[in-house]
Amino acid sequence: AGRDEDDLVVPTSGGRYDVHLKKRQRVAVYWEEEVSEVRRCTWFYKGDKDNKYIPYSETFSEELEEAYMIAVTLDEWKKKLESPSREVIILHNPKLMVHYHPVATSDDWGSTPTEQGRPRTVKRGVENIAAEIPNGEPLQIDHLVFVVHGIGPACDIRFRSIVQCVNDFRNVSLSMLQAHFKKAQEQQQIGRVEFLPVNWHSSLHSTGVDVDLERITLPSINRLRHFINDTILDVFFYNSSTYCQTIVDTVASEMNRLYQLFLQRNPLFKGGVSIAGHSLGSLILFDLLTNQKAAPEEDEHSQEGARTTSSNRGIEDVKEILKKLELSEYCDVFEKEKMDRQALFLCTEKNLKEMGIPLGPRMKILHYISSKAEMQVCLLHGLCSSRSPPTRETKPNLPLSQVSANYPQLDYKPTIFFAFGSPIGMFLTVRGVKRINPNYSLPTCKGFFNIFHPFDPVAYRIEPMIVPDLEFEPMLLPHHKGRKRMHLELKEGLTRMSVDLKNNLLGSLRVAWQSFTRAPLPAVEAASTDAEVEAEAEAGAEKQPDTKPEETPAAAKEEPSLINVGRLNGGNRIDYVLQEKPIESFNEYLFALQGHLCYWESEDTVLLVLKEIYQTQGITLDQPLPGSQ
Fold this sequence. Notes:
By secondary structure, the chain is an alpha/beta fold. It has 3 domains: 9-102 and 118-124, Signal recognition particle alu RNA binding heterodimer, srp9/1, CATH 3.30.720; 141-292 and 407-483 and 563-617, Rossmann fold, CATH 3.40.50; 314-379, DNA polymerase, domain 1 (Orthogonal Bundle). It is elongated.
């Protein structure tokens, strides 16, 4: 039994910590954290200013218990005990035990305990202690989500670590499950979603780069320079091929390690895995996902689909292009070389010459390719570029302007990729990617949600890169309580009212102007004239306002949920914007930083994540939220 007790380890906090009973220590399982002390509590004290009972150390609790048992056995009370810190505990009777806290220098003057201020209450056992002991988390885990942080070691406005922020995110998810998935919980259809943090910052800055930076950093404004070295420079590190390799290796290996460790500790787990990234972390995940290789079976299916579209439709497109260029006599040559549209746009003059195409037709084809390159050249993964077509020397596995790195493969296929406050769109644009092919989807991940706060200065949209010719608003995330925030409803109402007033006023002025400028008509035609004026007034009122984008009511902005935004999110909308809080609407600049760091405690964000995850399992919200897909 003693040997078993030595090795007795109890998992707590949903299996994220192990408590070693013999050592009285709590150890983090998935991440590095200081070992914390665990106490077996039997004796407690509570002062006037304390709002809860505080346990004594186990050693002193044993002394108290021994004195208490002697007093009970011999019925001798009013015993005094002195703690190691010279504090006095008096056991008056079983129901009255007090703890006198010594006042500084009071003992030098021979003061008695009654002169040392109000005593603390001492209690034995946990009965009648109004302690809120949580019931714990559901044992069943339905889905696993890895969360990757952005720049710097701190992840929110309170400078907390990724572990603490993900703890908040997880706690909010548990409350959202109770509020919005109550039926499924009562029917035991669902348990919970586990969120695990992925830390790459410490690995990057343990490479010795901080020492190198310290040598070249100026001594002035020391704190600001240290902050920049520790946070902002992470963006530049990621754009360096040397440190980019370190970052992607760390993120991928850490997620694979956590996944294998999770499966070892949860052998019955049959759920899916999703990934989420905040800020720069979302870009790291996006680059990893675009460089994943699909399974051979999927490759065969996708290649078969590609062959039917690319070989058949592609060859037909090539024929149309040659016909347009009046070069139809070369169709057989291109068909013999199995040249589809994409292959055509990868051709160089040398390739065309090897195919036996004369100089004149070669020039026509190359001119056509260069003129259409901005919209038609599809590089790796279907990302379209504004640059000239690549030559054969272009690396086939390197996306346009993406940092040269060997991207590791993940041990699983993510179900959904969630990006919070993400600069993916900006980085793709800076890399020279002008458009994302609507037919493109991430090789191993079929879901992609880009979630952002309207005042987040780091966040950028994705959908306009897929549908550049159409202006439309992002999807407005519904409030978790099932309504729009009051100030947004008020703003929409006032906007709608002003548009209606403007339309009516312009319509009335137009009718008045037309009746004023109309030539006098015979009295016989007066009746028909009145009818015509009314008809024209109605037509004018209908045709009048082509409302400008800023005047469009917000209700109309939610309609483009049916817009085709390609296959990046399985045909569903990608960009989702949070509703700002009333106080945030007073000054956008004041709350810009808070807007970038608000996602960890955002109920609306968490609810969207849970809704999309459980939708893949056929489980929906108790009541659909208005405005949601």
